[in-house]
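User: Sequence recovery, please. Input:
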């Protein structure tokens, strides 16, 4: 296959390609240069210390913040404005208190003018898949933190996004709820076959959810390592106890120890 045909195929698959992307705010160098490709339908985790530019990088990919140098592309086209076919979940759920769970999920469809019966059925089905189907009529203040994030994830998926961006969505949750959310997100994204990028501080979470893990340095954030994760899906939480899993976690942790981010 020629290089031209290979590139065309990648574009049709809606790959995400970053080529020498950097971000500066005046004299502050947030991240870069960074180059990597996220293939259509795969899940990539990005793990790194606070302040390394992970969230800024994610906003660049979403088209919410332009890069200073380099170019980011989606499906072969430069990302120069906010992407329409992307779902984003932030650390805060950002639910509207005056709308019930189902109506919060339907909000993106209402903005797009596509809130038909089929979309309403999909919204309800997503809430069922995420384990909050019995709370469709509940308001955010009636839900726990984990339940609110499940609603936020359903909202991000309701319009069939080509890309799902997760910016530390579980960092405010307790450990048990976080584990539950890891399994639920794995199942939903696998059912939807959506390209996913997860930003996290948790090494174990990055390995569990990713097909690859990109390890970032301290600011200015650069890629220290790109690790392929070999475990088949679906994955059980007990996988974290397996020697091969713990060895990958150790490999990532050593990067942070060598750079002084963690003390060994």
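Assistant: Recovered sequence (264 residues):
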């Amino acid at each position: 296959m020629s290089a031209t045909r290979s590139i065309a195929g990648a574009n049709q698959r809606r790959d995400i390609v970053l080529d020498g992307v950097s971000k500066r705010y005046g004299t502050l160098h947030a991240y870069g240069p960074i180059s990597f490709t996220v293939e259509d339908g795969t899940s990539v985790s990005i793990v790194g210390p606070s302040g390394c530019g992970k969230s800024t990088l994610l906003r660049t990919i979403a088209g919410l913040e332009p890069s200073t140098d380099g170019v980011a592309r989606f499906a072969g086209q430069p990302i120069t404005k906010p992407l329409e076919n992307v779902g984003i979940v932030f650390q805060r759920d950002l639910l509207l208190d005056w709308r019930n769970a189902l109506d919060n999920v339907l909000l993106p469809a209402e903005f797009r003018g596509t809130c038909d019966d089929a979309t309403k059925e999909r919204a309800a089905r997503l809430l069922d898949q995420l384990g909050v189907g019995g709370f469709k009529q509940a308001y955010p203040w009636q839900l726990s933190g984990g339940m609110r994030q499940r609603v936020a994830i359903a909202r991000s998926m309701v319009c069939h996004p080509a890309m799902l961006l997760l910016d530390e969505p579980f960092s405010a949750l307790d450990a048990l709820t976080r584990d539950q959310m890891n399994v639920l997100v794995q199942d939903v994204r696998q059912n939807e076959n959506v390209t996913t990028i997860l930003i996290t501080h948790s090494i174990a979470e990055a390995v569990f959810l990713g097909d690859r893990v990109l390890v970032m340095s301290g600011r200015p954030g650069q890629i220290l390592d790109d690790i392929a994760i070999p475990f088949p899906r679906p994955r059980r939480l007990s996988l974290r106890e397996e020697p091969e899993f713990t060895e990958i976690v150790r490999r990532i942790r050593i990067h942070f120890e060598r750079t002084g981010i963690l003390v060994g």
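The radius of gyration is 19 Å.
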